[in-house]
Amino acid sequence: MTTQPLPHLKRTLTRELPEAEGQTVKLLGFLHARRDLGGVQFLVLRDRSGIAQAVGAGLDLPLPESSIEVIGKVKAHPKAPGGYEVQVERLRVLTPATEPPPVELPKMEWNVNPETLLDYRVVTVRGLKERAVLRVQAELVAAFRDHLRAEGFTEISTPKIVSAGAEGGANLFPLDYFGQPAYLAQSPQLYKQILVGAFERVFEVAPVYRAEEHATSRHLNEYLSLDVEMGFIESEEDVMDLENRLLAAIMARLKERVRPELTLLGATLPEVPDRIPRITLLEARRLVSEKYGHTVGGKDLDPEAERLLSQHYAETEGSEFVFVTKYPRAARPFYTHPEVNPDGSLNPDLTRGFDLLFRGIEITSGGQRIHEYSMLMDSIAQYRLNPESLAGYTEVFKYGMPPHGGFAIGAERLTAKLLGIANVRYARAFPRDRHRLTP
Ligand code: AMO
């Protein structure tokens, strides 16, 4: 053993071991696991690409999770993870852990005892499955960006400190902005619409804030919103077509880039149909009532109705996605465009708003937006909102806005449903929920 680095040896990643058989390599990483069998030490080193087993004698192994450098020869070994093992010639401890991790990472029972795992998230997030979830999400976000850029969209960044809410409801986090009342943004809705005036097609990837008091498996107080807005549409159908193409591109990319992570998590990616089925909300309510005997109160679908509707389309059309369209006005925010009747008149009850359900839950809301100033002001009055508080937004509609629409995908909900995770909190590195502000 030595304390001197060997500068001439380039770093090898654990996933590159098969190509390095018979060679002496240098691995850098974390001491994932260790075992002493009568003077022979086995260790598992974890780096960003995976894990590798190493074996040596007379090694003074530090605590798990210490940062280490291992130099040794690569040998084929069918029983080792990945089929190769490193015979340790030198072990150097770069940073010794000073305490053992509170949870044994290799033995971590996933999705079990969730609160403890979240309490110790600073270190449990290093677990192979934990980081695989976040890696898949990172690839999903990259695919979202790449596809939209290829369709001519520009990435935008809008304020998260705002003077008014965009989505209505009571779930705004207030804050004191130098003595002025302000809020954390519930969504980039109004700003993404304004920027359609500059770029026609925009998207944003950013956290948004919802002061939801209830703790459910689908709600976070801070979540990653994947937002899209597009100008010069005919109707919300164009927006759904775009989301259909986008989802197909995302799934194709995941299939190609994160196969090891998907295998580790036992996840099956959905097929995205060329045309995701579309059903109006009214028909959807009738369907779940007639086929499943489930009657929904209120104007929307409830979680059970979402589940049943998804089940219906999975069974009858083999689609794990379904768009629910033509939401009633009472169930949508003020900016939603009313449905246009065949004779060109406006429908006072229905809108061009839609949701997308995937594997039983809503992962997207979207729709066509109102683009005419007078119609928007009428809508604000009908919703009994204060036009002054929205003046900074409504003003742009005096200067000419094209017909436009868009949608937002909740990144954690999509990730969780893709990977079979029961609670959206595990699809976020450091979730914020009703009871959790740390870590
Ligand atoms: P909405 O409020 O329906 O629509 O949100 C859009 C999507 O965001 C996700 N989502 C959440 N995820 C986790 N925790 C929450 N508390 C939470 N709330 C919502 C869901 C949901 O479908 N401006 C519109 C979108 C648009 O029309 O473009 C909006 O924010 O996946």
What are the defining features of this structure?
8-stranded mixed β-sheet; 2 domains; BirA Bifunctional Protein, domain 2; 439 residues; alpha+beta; 5-stranded mixed beta barrel; binds aspartyl-adenosine-5'-monophosphate; OB fold (Dihydrolipoamide Acetyltransferase, E2P)
Description:
The chain has helices at residues 114-119, 121-124, 128-150, 189-199, 236-257, 259-265, 281-292, 303-317, 373-382, 391-394, 411-419; strands at residues 24-37, 40-47, 50-57, 67-76, 84-95, 154-155, 161-162, 174-177, 180-184, 201-209, 222-231, 278-280, 321-325, 338-340, 346-351, 353-358, 361-368, 404-410. With 439 residues, it is α+β, with helices and mostly antiparallel strands. The chain has 2 domains: 14-95, Nucleic acid-binding proteins (OB fold (Dihydrolipoamide Acetyltransferase, E2P)); 122-427, Bira Bifunctional Protein, Domain 2 (BirA Bifunctional Protein, domain 2), CATH 3.30.930. The strands form 4 sheets. It has an 8-stranded mixed β-sheet, with helices on both faces. It has a 5-stranded mixed beta barrel with strand order 1-2-3-5-4. Strands 7-9-8 form a 3-stranded antiparallel β-sheet, with no helix packed on it. A hairpin with a 5-residue loop joins strand 14 and strand 15 (346-351). Helix 3 (128-150) crosses helix 6. The two termini are 37 Å apart. The mean pLDDT is 95. Aspartyl-adenosine-5'-monophosphate binds next to strand 11, strand 17, strand 18 and helix 11.
